[in-house]
Structures are given as structure tokens and as C-alpha cells.
Amino acid sequence: MIERRKSKQIQIGNVKIGGDALISVQSMTNTDTRDVKSTLKQIYNLAESGCEIVRLAILNQEAADAVREIKKKSPVPLIADIHFDYRLAIRCIENGIDALRLNPGNIGKEENIKKVVSLAKTNNTPIRIGINGGSLEKDLEALDIPLHEKMVKSALRHIKILEDNNFDQIKVSLKSSDVLTTIEAYRLIANKIVYPLHLGVTEAGTYNGGIIKSAVGLGTLLAEGIGDTIRVSLTDSPIEEVKAGFMILKSLGIRKKGINFVSCPTCGRTQIDLISLAKEVENRLENFDKPLTIAVMGCAVNGPGEAKHADYGIAGGIKEGYIFKKGQIIKRLPEEKLVDEFINLIQMENV
Hints:
Layout: E1 10-12, E2 15-17, E3 24-28, H1 36-48, E4 53-57, H2 61-73, E5 78-81, H3 86-94, E6 99-101, H4 110-122, E7 127-132, H5 138-141, H6 147-164, E8 170-175, H7 179-190, E9 198-199, H8 207-223, E10 229-230, H9 238-251, E11 260-263, H10 274-284, E12 293-297, H11 303-306, E13 312-316, E14 320-325, E15 328-334, H12 335-349
């Protein structure tokens, strides 16, 4: 059982963050926020895949104005991603945004910071301080200390600005494209602040490499009890980010939404097309919400035995296979009928 780091609880829309709340999965739209129709379509697709919070890029006033219509129809809470222009933050709050991603030290004069923070307090709009290892303040970059220490100093600096304005609805992230730097930054800050932490390895890369980097970075921290929300950053569809996020949480037993899929590697005993079989079963159960463990194993020697913990499973034979349930074989079928029978059984018994 993983013991979670104790953190202050905040709320973004209807989603609680930190404290004893579930670790939530986030993503970000890659549409032009000014295009309300396309942006809402992607938000709905993300929500259907399980995404619990969605971030929007706010590049200009038109995008900030579009927030009003998007927010009215969004099925999940929304975060506005703001850089440098305090007026965009104000407009987004006025248009009902659920939270901001904003580094207060980057928006200029103290009077502008006060305007944003005052309105955020009035509207109960939390602020995520988002530190990126590749874009630190120049005076911190010049320090002769490890990058993760510079990142933490930057985060604490921005936190102090908000706290000095009596604002404590704060979430913090410290992301680097380097996995070890990311891990060390979160470890260091975890004992220095009480605020919830949003985890991510930024610019992680394309699908395969990005998932591996994110799994190592986020998985390490989550296993240590650090982290309250996560985003897997991929050069791919945002839907894939959400799927990967839940896979990481499921692998640690933190969240149990959907299928926990188990399959063995191929070996010389395998006399069935295991790779195609496993991919087809996984794809067809992709949107199945019930927390079941499903196994696809290469042979009857290891199948029901090694995967006896699975709720349902397939074990391959010679151009045929066995369907088993909780380690007990219940059907023997030719290879071409296996998947349909297997999926039907699962769906019939788990309506």
C-alpha cells in the first residue's frame, strides 16, 4: 500500500485535488482555442477516454474570449494556460475558467499580479505554478547548483508572491525533459510545501519513448507517494496521453478504472498467433470501464496457472485456445472463434 504525501486539498471545478482525493489524470487540447467547435469536440473525446481535467492554450484575447462558450458546454473542468499577459488571465477568470496555469513572477508589475490574484480569490480560481527546467529566470540559471535545485528555488519564489497576496489555492509542477532531474525536483519540494503537486515529464517525446520516460519518472514519484495529478506529455494524440496516464496509475494499484491487461511474451512453446490475439483483445476492451484483470497467455502450460489471478483469460494451444476464468478452464475453441467468444463472455457477465 502506497502512503500518500499529505497535502492541502484544493478544488478545480468538481474535481478535488490533493489530500485524500483520487490522483486525477489531465491532458491538454492541441486545437486552436479560438475554434470553439473543434476544441469542444476534442474536450468531449478526452472526457470519454477518462480525462478528468483539460488545459487550454490561451495565446491571445480571442482565445480568452472563446473560454466563455467552451466553459458553458465542457463536461470537465478547464485550466487556462497563461504566459506573461495578465489581461488574458483576468479575461479567462471573468469567462468562468476553473483554474489558471500561471507563474505570477512572469506577468510584470506587482499591481498586475494583485489584480489577477484578487479576482482569482473572489472567484475561487486555483492557480498552478508551472516550473519548466528549460525556461528558468536568468538569475537562477546562472547559479552553480544542480538544475533541480534551481527549479525548486523558482517554484518557491512564485509561491511566495501568491502567499504574500494571501492566496493559497495553489498547485505546483516542476517539469523537465530529463527524467532524473524531474524526479529530484519533486522529491526536494515535496517536503518544503503543503500544496498539491501536478506530475509530468515535459517534452517526453513521441509515443514509445514518451511513455517510457513518463512511466519511469511519474511511476517512481507515485510509488513514493508523491503526486496529486498527472499528465503524460506525448507528441501524439491527447487521447493517448490519458490512456497512458491511467495505465501508469493502474500498474501501481492507485486507480482501477478499466481493464488491467496481462499478456506473456512469445516463446518457443507458443503455437498460436499470440501477438495479434493479444492486440485484438486489448483493442476491443479498450473502452470497457469495469476494473477487470484480463490475461492473454501463449500456452496452456503457463496460462491458467501464471494468470490464475486474472478474472478472465485466454491460453493458446495448437491453432486453438482455452478460455479460463479465475484459473479454471471453461471452454476450448478453435483459434478463429476465440476472441468473439471471449469478448461475449466478458460482456454478458459484466453488464
